[in-house]
Amino acid sequence: MSKSEFTTIAAAALAGLPTTETEGSMPIEVVAIRPSPHGPLIEWRGGPPRSSTLLAVLARATALRWRDGTPRIPEGWRAELGVRFPRAFEEGGPNSWGGWRWLWEAGASMIEEAGGRTFKCEQTKEKFGSIRWYYSLSRKHSLPVVGQVARIVANVEHLSAFTCEFCGAPGKIRSDGWAKACCNHHADRKNRVGR
Ligand SMILES: [Zn+2]
Fold this sequence. Notes:
It contains 6 helices and 6 strands; from the N terminus they run αββαααββαββα. By secondary structure, the protein is α+β, with helices and mostly antiparallel strands. The strands form 3 sheets. A two-stranded antiparallel sheet has the order 1-2. The longest helix has 18 residues, at 143-160.
């Protein structure tokens, strides 16, 4: 399950990026799924070289999503993330439905690992169907750290457009009046009740 989610979202997210002629279409192949502290971590080969951060964020989010078996969204997920990553999100946690909780967690944990110690969230929200994550970062950081933090945030935002905001399954933006990233099930508004 995690493997098909990874390959589906990766293919859709990469199709939306401009590619150079030499890159062409470079198929992604899952070569292993290994246990990790974050959950079952997918290892892959292929894909355009510029997509390595995108795929790393997606692999982390997918691992987190499947860490405890069948994915579920506990009621207090926002507050929990807000407490664990107080600088990454507003007080009370990120502003979205729960299907994006693993993307938020992947981003926040990878920003920490990248050394973005002064990362400070200004605002999180959904706009036109995908994540917007506004932040500030001290100029004291080295350029590689600044660049890596920017890439992580940009890829969380990009991947959210292909991830159902209600459940986290692969999805796409539907614009029937109000743009929302949804799986087929949640494309039907009746199925969003109670979410
Ligand atoms: Zn869904």
